[in-house]
Amino acid sequence: MATKHFTDKELMCKCGCGDCEMDEGFMEILEKIRIEMKRPLYLSSSKRCSLHNQATSSTGEHGPHTFGQAVDILISGADALRLVEVARKHGMTGIGVKQNGPVGKRFIHCDNLGIEYTKSTGGPRPWVWSYA
Fold first, then answer.
1. Could you tell me if 77 and 97 are in contact, meaning their C-beta atoms sit under 8 angstroms apart?
2. DSSP alpha helices (H): ranges in the chain?
3. In contact, 83 and 75? CB cutoff 8 Å
4. What does DSSP assign to residue 40?
C-alpha cells in the first residue's frame, strides 16, 4: 500500500515475487513517523513473502515482515536514536537496533505487532532489541 512518501516498489518483497501488500494501519503510522522525522526514510526491507522471510530471517515463515507490519529503515547516528523515540511515540511495539558495521548497512527495525503475535511467539511487547 503506497503512501505519499513510500512507493509500492520500495515496499515490495525483495525476492521478486511482487508481494507488496502492507497493513493499512501500519502504513498510516509509518507515514506519520516520516512526517515527524522531516527527512526521507530509506527502507532496506519491508514486506517479505513467507519463503523469502524463511530464507533471510531467524523468525522463519511468519516473522513481522510477512504480516506487512514491519520495515527496516537505513539510518544511523543521532537520526537513528531520534527515530527510535519517534517510533515508540507512534506505537511501534517492536524496535530492533543495528548500529554496528558499515554506516550504509545500519538500520532500525520497526513493527507494530500486537498481542496476537506475542501469544504466538511468547515474546514480550513492547520490545526493543539489538542485532549482533
1. no
2. 8-11, 24-37, 50-56, 77-89, 115-121
3. yes
4. -
Query: What is d(CA 131, CA 5) in angstroms, rounded to the nearest whole number?
Result: 27
C-alpha cell, 61: 515463515
Q: What is the pLDDT of residues 57-110, one digit of tens each?
A: 988 888 899 999 999 999 999 999 999 999 999 999 999 999 999 999 999 999
**Cell numbers for 32:** 506519520
Assess contact for 49 and 19: CB atoms under 8 A: yes
How far is it, in rounded angstroms, from Cα 75 to Cα 107? 5
DSSP state at residue 65: G
Domain count, the chain: 1
The CATH number linked to 55 is 3.30.1380.10
